[in-house]
Structures are given as C-alpha cells and as structure tokens.
Amino acid sequence: MKRILIIAALAISTLTVKAGSAVFTIRNAGGKPVFFQPQDSSKFITIAARDTTFSYGVDKPRYFNLVIDGSRYIPLYCTPGCTTSITIATDGTATLDGTFKSENTFMEQHPFNCTTPQSIVPYSRDWTEYNERVLATRLDELQASGLNAEFRKVHAAYLNNTFLYQRINGAQTSLTFSPEISQTIELAPDYYDFLKDVKFNDPLMLSYPKWFDTIDKSFEEMERHGFIPTSPDNYMSVYAGNITNPTLRSRYIVGMVELALRKGYYADVIAQYDNLLSLTEDDSLRGRMAELKAMAEEAKASDKLTGSQLPFFTGNTVDGRSYSLADFKGKYIMIDFWFTGCVPCKAEMPFYDRLADELADTGIQFLSISLDTGNQLMATWKKMMTSRAPSHVLYLNIPGGFKSNFIKQTGIKSVPRLMIVGKDGTIIDSCAKRPSDPKLKAKLKDLGKNEE
Hints:
disordered N terminus; 38% helix; globular; 12 helices; 452 residues; five-stranded mixed β-sheet
C-alpha cells in the first residue's frame, strides 16, 4: 500500500477536545515511527518515535488504524469529542486507553477480515460458509460483550459490511489480478445469488469506511446478473431508487455523481440530474449537487471530441497488415485503447471479445488499439496476439503509441479508454463505459438496430 506522508511529526503538549474532532495521544517507546490512517483514506500520518498528541476531524462514528512495523494494524473506534491513548513499549507491544479503551481492545482481540485456512479455495462455497460462521461468532461475541450500546450497533454494521464488501470487491479484484499472479479464480454460477436479498436501508452503513464502494459495486453486479434493470440512460436513478433510507440514498447519490464525473461520464450527470436531485432528500447536500452539475456542464463545454470527427489513423495487425479509418467507412466503430502494461485493460479484454462476438450480427466494427511502443512492449503485444483465441475484434497497434499524432489529436492520456464512433466518423461517445459494464452492450445494441 502506498504511503503518503502528510505530517513528518506532530508534538502538541495540550489540546482541548472539541465537538467534531477526536484527540489521539501516542506514547512511542518502540524506537520506530508508526503510522496513523483513517480507514476510509489511503493517506497516512507519520508518527515520530516520540510522544505525540494530535486531533483529527470526526463528524460521526469513525474507524482508524494504527500501523506498527509496517504490518501490524491496530483498529481504533472514535466518535466526536473522544480521546484515545496508545502506548507502544520498547518491544513493540501496544496498550490502549481512553474513551473507548474496552471497545478498541475488543476489536483488536476479535478481528474479522475474511481470511480463511489455506485449504479453502478463495470465494468458493466453502469460503463463503467459513466466513459466515466466523461472522456469526463475532456478532454473538459483540452482543455478549456488554460494551457501549452505540458501538455495538455501529460495529455490527461494520462487521456485516466487511463481509459484503469482501464478497463483492475481493472477488472482482481476484478475477482481475489472478492472471498476473498465475492463479485461476473461478466463481460458482450462483456465487452472486445472495445479492437478490441485499437491501440498503440502514444509515449506520455510513460509518463503514468503504460504504460507497460496497453499495456501488453491489449494484454493478446486480445489474450484470439481471437482478436490477440495465438502463444506459437512467442507471443512476435506478441505483438510487434501490436505496430505501433517504439519508443513505442522498449520500450515495452525491458519491455516485462525483464518481461519474471522475470517469468522464458528464453526459450521464446532465441527463439524469433532475431526477437524481428529486431523490436527494437531504437538503444539506443540494448545494453540492448544484456544484456537481456546474462541473458537468464545464466538462461538456471542454469536451472537444464528442461530436467531432475521429482523427485519421493507421494501425497494424500482428502480421503487419495495415488498416485506416477509411476501411470502416459506413460502420459504427467501437474502439478500446489500451497497452500491455495496463492490468485493468487486460482484465477487460475477455469481456470485449465476448461483447464483439455477441454483437457480431449488428455490423458494428470492434477495434482494439494497442499503444505499445519499444521492443519489449511490442514483443509482449505480439505474444499476446498470437496466443489469444479468435474473436470478432480487430486488434491493431498504432505506431508511436501515446506519442503518435493520432493520440495527440485525441488528447488521450490514460487507458483503458473506450470510444463509440458513428458511421460518418463522428465521435458519439468519447468516454464510453467499459466492456464488463452491461450498459455498454445495451447502448451498442440500440446502435446496432440502426444497421438492420
């Protein structure tokens, strides 16, 4: 995990505990720096090898980690106005004290992180059943602990959502990276059936650090497996409509719009904004929604690709045959830009091949344009091309890659990047959804109907 060192050392002798903040005191006799991390952030604060006191903004129950020796994580639970004290002995052992001494000690002694014995295949039925048993045990231990009632409610939500997040994100990540580490991860055909019964109606979920990713990735899988409708033009409203709690729904809508803008889906935000605003019942978030709409309008104004002509290009197949834009005149074109060093790009390739095969009768031309350059990367690309199974995708390499005139004219700076081009060469969508997203297939099927 990448460490971003925000503060080299903090030493504040006296702090007044204020509402909206929590105070942490680290007494470090271990001789080595330790790290403090909010669990909902990738950023770390470095704590020097001396006594340190600092405050951190907390507006609701929140979880943190104290990282010792780079590998040992001590979880910490905090609420506004609480104090937490950690003493690290010379041998590296830690003693907890403060407002939630008993609660933090309990979390350290009763961890739940979905680990299993090596004999159990990850994300198999045995994996699920094992973690269900461990989760049930942890929940029973929590309720029998006699600890702070609010903590027991919040931490029960934390434990349940830890399992849900791992079932969704852990499986997705493993499927993405397993080819890179020479492992084969296969999910049972009914692996995601549990999502049929998942409901998001508990605002306590907001205390779980990965609450947004858990909900968002759950909806992605629900959509992919047909548990909720696939709607390219209204998907954000579909997602939001499946959250019954107004507080949770409002927070999710804001997070979803922010994510859509980061991905370049400004058109989706503009088209769905009014309906999303009507579903945002938290008045304190309406100002943020207005800001996001303005950002979407600004992104639209600065997009010089959508609606313009795709620049001329020439690409070569692995056997040296050349193709140019003119070869596809009169066809809709789906383009996937990538290079061999991009793991997410390669993870999407099977979905892209499958999509092209499934839509072969529509007449849409599927192109995969490699931006690899240099002897080593080109050798890797050629090896990949000669070892892959045939599909309806035409795989090309653009000489010069990111430095080619074509890429300079498009302004593409990162991959994966997908575009949809009209029959006349006009770019319909300069930042299309990824092949694993069923909304891309639905959109292309609608285009393909125009070919009939």
